Amino acid sequence: MIISESSASPRIVPTLTENKQTTVNSDDNQIIYLPGTNCVIKSNISLSGFTSYKVGGKAQWYSAPRDLMAIKATVEYAQALDLPITILGAGSNLLVSDEGIPGMVIATRHFRYKYFDNQTGRLTVAAGESIPSLAWEAASLGWEGLEWSVGIPGTVGGAVVMNAGAHNNCMGEMLVSAELLSPDGTLETVNRSQLGYKYRSSLLQGSERIVTQATFQLQPGADPAKVTSRTREHKQHRLSTQPYNFPSCGSVFRNPLPRTAGWLIEQTGLKGYQIGGAQVAQLHANFIVNRGGAQANDIFRLIRHIQRQIQDQWSILLEPEVKMIGRFPVLDGYS
Ligand SMILES: Cc1cc2nc3c(=O)[nH]c(=O)nc-3n(C[C@H](O)[C@H](O)[C@H](O)COP(=O)(O)OP(=O)(O)OC[C@H]3O[C@@H](n4cnc5c(N)ncnc54)[C@H](O)[C@@H]3O)c2cc1C
């Protein structure tokens, strides 16, 4: 049996093998202990604290595994109950619906380890490691290659999936290989060429595979003070050009090259435009910031408003870079 506790009284729920349920009643606050792991699954966990926008409803089920075995056990549990799985990294590129997310949310933030291999110059890291922390640590060791990424507040898994990039660099260029977990529990290691990397995109987006580990090629042997200084410069540059003082998800739209989304939005006079607590940032027009008390729906409506305005004036449909998860209203045919 799997023991489940509610805040009111402890309960016993059937194990997967005894009763293959397709729906789970998560009305009350339950805690499910996965046997053989140190991992618990909780119901009705608010996600607003786990996203950089600081908005969004609850996860029907939430788990934050600390090791691979616990991730596998959580996936197996969700699969057995036919629960859809959503992976949450640092939540820095997510707009979670006010209605929350049905099924299982697996957060990787506690799944962490790293290994700097001096022989090869390769850094192997777990999916939940923080990109800025890695950039600072690599710099302090005199390893070059991650300086540009210090302002990207995501995890390794999110950066590999999103092909996060800045200053003409991107994760896909540095990636040597990634370890992926499929819903059926199989683990495979793939190299960069198998992931179809393009500008802010990879074959992992929309796929059911979970990034569990990544290996990056860096260049060790430099002066730590110089690498740290370059890293600091990148951070300073971003602080002066992007609005880090309010919750956001970074750039909302992909750049419709050769133009940039920020330029188009600014030219359209939308800087400062506000719906509810969501505002087009004054400092950088491709950022939407939460000025306080925004709902996910405010941000969603502002995204659609910007798309409509740009479409009307420039005949360009801006494509969101931010991932919208959960249910949102359909507005004017934009999806
Ligand atoms: C202030 C600010 C500045 C930013 N600047 C930049 C920038 O310069 N360049 C840039 O590219 N981005 C930038 N971003 C956006 C964001 O930080 C990146 O997209 C980042 O890579 C997202 O990582 P994450 O861990 O937060 O992923 P999340 O937002 O948690 O998830 C993003 C997507 O990846 C999936 N995912 C996450 N982890 C895994 C995993 N382990 N396996 C499978 N799927 C997974 C999620 O399901 C989701 O679809 C910025 C964001 C903020 C708030």
UniProtKB/TrEMBL annotation:
Its main location: cytoplasm. It is an enzyme of class 1 (oxidoreductase). Belongs to the MurB family. GO terms for cellular component: cytosol. Residues 54-221 form the FAD-binding PCMH-type domain. This is UDP-N-acetylenolpyruvoylglucosamine reductase. The lineage of its organism: Bacteria, Bacillati, Cyanobacteriota, Cyanophyceae, Nostocales. HAMAP family: MurB (MF_00037). One of its GO terms (molecular function) is FAD binding.
